[in-house]
Known about the structure:
Number of strands: 0
Structural class: mainly alpha
Largest sheet: none
Helix content: over 70%
Shape: extended
Strand content: under 5%
Amino acid sequence: MLSKMLTEFSSTMANKKLRNIKNSDPEEYEEVLKMFLTASEVVIHFLHESPEFRDAFSRVHNEFMKYPECRASIEQALEAYQKYGDK
């Protein structure tokens, strides 16, 4: 069941409507927003419940840090730490 859901989610993400979300009508935008919010909740649940998922999540982020595209993320993390780190 989960595999089917993830496959459908991947297919939906690749959908032309999603690539053109800025030009879509408000109802379509709201549906896509709801989908992403639900997916976020599922990911957070898996982070709480699954050491295997946390490990995979960490490996993806660690791999990302090896590439120059991560620079903006690192800079924003440092800014956030400077702003909120002591609080």
